[in-house]
Amino acid sequence: MMKSLLGLIMAEYNNFVSKINLQKNNKYRKVSFSTKYGKLSTPLFLPDATRAFIKSTDNDEVRKTKTEILMVNTFHLYLQHKFEIIRKAGGVSNFMSWNQPLMSDSGGFQVFSLLHNHKIKGKITDDYVEFKSPLDGSMHKLDAEKSINIQFDLATDIMVCLDDCPPHESDEKLMKISVERTINWAKRAKCEFEKQLKKRKIKEKDRPLLLAVIQGGLDVDLRRYCAKALVEIGFDAYGLGARPVDNNGNFLSEVLRETALVTPKESLRFALGVGMPEDIYRSYFLGWDAFDCVIPTREGRHGRLFYFNQNFNGFESKISDVSSGACPEFYKAVNIKNKVFQEDFSAINKSSDIKVLRDYSKAFLHHLFRLNDPLGQKLASLNNLEFYQNLIKYLKVIK
Q1: By CB distance 3.0 to 4.6 Å, which of 34, 63, 231, 349 could disulfide with 357?
Q2: Phi, psi for residue 379 in degrees, rounded to 5
Q3: The whole model's pTM is what?
Q4: How many CB atoms within 10 Å of residue 119?
Q5: Where are the alpha helices (DSSP H) in 200-290?
């Protein structure tokens, strides 16, 4: 009984110490870094321009949402038959006429999620991953070095080391193998990265950042181990790999909090694939300051729009609450296809900085979706992109 009580007291004490350390390490995440286009400061949200464009919008419209940087998908761009054209264009920024910073992923998440879930054929070894293209059935090999080379050909401003990303439900043995593989590939990726900087004669002021991904699933100790090993190798940025929720949808507060504490305070911390607005809020307070996801545009194309609640007036400091997974109800999501909007003549967003969102009504947007017109998808996507960038703005000025 005494041992049990002592254990509870120690657990509570350790949790308290973690919160104090987090406050010292976080208050609040504001990291600046340079790109060839100039400086960026966190927090940041990167819309996913998966195949070098954001569906239903164009670059000028995306810029109106105050978006500063996009994420492109290495896996999908590499598998396109015309990848050589992107290389000849001088990189994906030139190809898509986006004269602002770009980040590329490694291709690892897509490859490994498809392989681990047996959705494509292939094999994973300690040296490389081999897989069958879901586009045309051709076989491909991807390793740490090739992934970096592809990203140099894309000429992005932030690159990601190839990592092994197994599902959360994987057994302990597989998860440990994945962590060791991720560390080893990160080491190889950094060597190739430095080699390519010299080979391509890239000047220091134009040098991209290199991000290593922290794996370990639901195991906090494995996450710490992976993070410490990557920090010892040394990278510009660190990413939280895999989903930020468990298989029941529970947010992994402890995993995010404890992993953040192991990474350097001055480094960019990227919660990859996050996500829902409440998960961005929680992740930021738990020590992460950059996020990307397809949610705003994907949901917009399906008629789901995000709005801040009417009484929302900005965020306050709530680290202690967030450590236990709490989150204020600061927004709502509506389905514009619902009949209730058929005669709603109020603006899509009366407080928007984007003219078309102030000019067009919800009734008109409902009409566009009912007729399946592309303009509806564009307007809804713009609304959601602006909502996400305003969420980031509110995080930057926490009271």
Answers
A1: 349
A2: -65, -45
A3: 0.91
A4: 9
A5: 220-233, 253-262, 277-285
CB 381 within 8 A of CB 301: yes
Residue positions annotated with a catalytic role: 105, 292
Of the candidates 21, 20, 66, 59, the residue with the CA atom closest to the CA atom of residue 43? 66
CB atoms within 10 A of CB 54: 25
Domain spans, the chain: 28-293, 295-399
Q: Which whole-number Å values give the CA distances from 372 to 294, 337, 368, 397, in the listed order?
A: 21, 10, 6, 39
Q: Among 10-14, 250-254, 314-318, which stretch is predicted with the lowest mean pLDDT?
A: 10-14
Amino acid at 234: G
Sign of CA dihedral 116, 119, 121, 122: negative
- For 208, other C-beta atoms within 10 Å of its C-beta total 24
CATH number for region 28-293? 3.20.20.105
Q: pLDDT of 262-277, one tens digit each?
A: 999 999 999 999 999 9
> What's the token pair of residue 108?
């690892």
